[in-house]
Amino acid sequence: MSSTYDTIANIIAETCDIPRDTIKPESHAINDLGIDSLDFLDIAFAIDKAFGIKLPLEQWTQEVNDGKATTDQYFVLKNLSARIDELVAAKGA
Amino acid sequence: MRLEYFQLIDRIVDLNLADRSISSEATVPVNNTIFEGHFPGFPLMPGVLLIEAMAQTSGWLIVAANRFQRMPFLAQVKNAKFRTFVMPGQRLLVSAKLVHEGSGYAVTAANITLAGKPVCDATLTLRVMDFPNAEVSEKMRETAARVGFPNEVAANG
Q1: Nearest to A46 by CA among A32, A59, A35
Q2: Was domain A3-92 assigned CATH 1.10.1200.10?
Q3: Contact (CB, 8 A) for B140 and B84
Q4: How far, in Å, are A67, B108, B148 from residue A70 at the CA level?
Q5: What are the domain boundaries of chain B?
Q6: What are phi and psi of B145, to 5 degrees?
Q7: Under an 8 A CB cutoff, do B75 and A38 touch?
Q8: pLDDT tens across B26-78, in order?
Q9: ipTM of this model?
Q10: What is the DSSP letter of B103?
C-alpha cells in the first residue's frame, strides 16, 4: 500500500486514538472508524501539514450533499489516499 | 471588557494580515457580579473567559483574512494553560497568530500577557462558515467598528 495511505492511517490512529491495526484501506473514516466531523478537522489539519495541501472538505461536503458524490469516494481511506495523491500532483504541476 | 455582553476585548491594537497576526487589549472590569462567585473574597478572572478572549481575538483575525465574508465559530481548544492569576482591573494583551487556514476551518496559536509576562496560551480551532444571516453580518461590522477594526480591512469586505 502506498506511503500516502500509511501516513493518513498513522495520523488517524494518533489523532483519534484508534488502534493502528484496526485501520484498513477499505475502512470508511466515518462509518467504520466512527470519526466525527470535529475529529476529522484534526485529521484534515494533520494531512494538510503533512502533504502541504488543503483538503477541499467544504467542496467534498457540498458534492455529497448535492448527490454528485458519495462519502465512499472521499472517506474510504484508499480513496482518500488517491484524492490526496491527486492534490499533491496538482500542486506540483 | 463588557462581560455582560460577552465582549471580551476592548480594542484591536494591531492587525497584520501579511504576518497573519493580531493583538488586542482587554481590561478586566473592577466590579462585576462574576467576581461575587469566582471567588467570594478572592476575585479572579475565570480561565474560561480568558479562553473566550483568545477566541474572540482569533476570530477577528479570521474575519479579516476572510474579508468579512465568513464567520468563525470556536470548535476546539487544545493545550490551554493558565500560568498566573488575573485580577479585576488588570489590562491584558491578547495575541493570536494564524497557524493554518484549512477548508472551512482555521487554527490559531493564541496567548495572553500581562505587562509582558505570560498569562495563558492555547491552540484554537475555529470552524469558518457563511454568516447565518445578514443581521449577524451587519452586527459584526458594528462591533468591528467599536473595537477599532482597521477601516482599510473592513472596507475591503
Answers
A1: A35
A2: yes
A3: no
A4: 7, 32, 45
A5: 3-138
A6: -65, -40
A7: yes
A8: 999 999 999 999 999 999 999 999 999 999 999 999 999 999 999 999 999 99
A9: 0.85
A10: S
- Kindly report each contact of residues B113-118 with a partner whose C-beta sits within 8 Å and lies 24 or more positions away, as own/partner: B114/B84, B114/B86, B114/B90, B117/B84, B118/B83, B118/B84
Residue B49 CB contacts under 8 Å (≥ 6 apart), including other chains:
B3, B8, B34
The set of catalytic residues of B is 38
Chain A contacts in chain B segment 28-87 (CB below 8 A): 75-76
CATH code for the structural domain at B3-138: 3.10.129.10
Burial of B17 (0-12, 13-18, 19+ CB in 10 A): middle
Domain positions in chain A: 3-92
CB-based contact (8 Å) between A16 and chain B? no
Going across the sheet that includes B105-114, the strands are B11-16, B21-27, B91-101, B105-114, B117-130, B70-82
Chain B residues with CB inside 8 Å of A61's CB? 104
Residue bearing cell 484498513: A24
